[in-house]
Amino acid sequence: MAVEKTFVMIKPDGVKRGLVGEIIARFERKGLKIKALKMKWLSREEAEKLYEVHKGKPFFEELVNFVTSGPVVAMILEGDSAINVVRLMIGPTDGRQAPPGTIRGDFALDIGANVIHASDSKESFEREYRVFFSDEEIVGDY
Length: 142
Hints:
It contains seven helices and four strands. By secondary structure, the protein is an alpha+beta fold.
């Protein structure tokens, strides 16, 4: 297996509902290392950059408005096959279809208020983490 990094963001609904600690604990119990972590309130420009792959889709405006409605917690996680492992842990985008035991299956209220975002590929990771972190903010080996 290859050690890789992935980007994860706990959305405003997850922050507001006090789920940050529970979500981070799940990743740590799985053996993923936190390489960078911060809380911030996204500007519209940052949100549009984060979700630029969805620009022009019917839900883009709603997504940008939602993700800028409150603070988010962003992190970079590292571990064996981290991108795939995290995607399996969070479950499908629509929480109604996410199995129990996944983050969305346990906490998502609907397809919009689905608590969490995670990169779906190395390319997405490279684009998404740069909205939040500089390379200097990523912790080295420990």
